[in-house]
Amino acid sequence: MLDERARVILRGYLQSPAPPPARTSRRDRTSPAPKPAARIQLTPDTPPPAADVPEPVISGSTVEEQLASLHRQAADWPPAKSLGTLRGTMVFAVGNPRADLMLVGEAPGFNEERQQEPFVGRAGQKLNQILTAMGLEREDIYISNICKFRPAMERQTTANRKPTRAEMDSCLPFVRAEISLVRPKCIVALGATAAEGLLHSDLPVGRLRGSWHQFHDIPVRVTYHPSYLLHNEHAAAEKRKVWDDMLCVMEQLGMDITEKQRGFFLSK
Question: What is the pTM of this model?
Fold first, then answer.
């Protein structure tokens, strides 16, 4: 007889939609390279789903329609709303629904809530600089957050706080569904909160970065949040740590890497 955890996993698998058409590489539009079908399975790094949080229902015939169905449900998601600790404006995701690379942050902040888009403001500008150095544009990737609502604080103005485990768990069904639809070749967890949400690990980023982890059988690289670099603007060694992680991501994606790129932030 199946236990409750097995039922949740099996139900998520049975509800997984048929994969969308393969996306042609941005570098070679004439040679389509279909992605393998996404496999939704638990790995040693993958946390079990929270038993009391339901899975969203995915509907639509294209990946765009399916993500739109998730967006509509997330805006008024009872498990998140019932906590009473999250603000009312939902910030879903942005980017290419057939991207090879998916970035996951922590939760919307003041600027993200106001613009209803992940990674805007100074942290978003820093992220854009990293992507440009990689030879990518924001439109090439898919960006989401581990929590879809800004965590609330008393007399809150521009201040932000880290989401709790319960707040992350209330929104994780959407992150799992996004991953199953986008089917990225790898995921980057930006900061300790994103790593905690995806991997159920309370280890600091410094302990998690430098190796590959897995979420639903997809490689995950953990690196520092762009805001960390803003606080260490003149520390080339810290920038190099993030850049080393991005070089590993580029290699995982099969991207060309120049000698100039390999030399970024190295001491002369």
Answer: 0.81
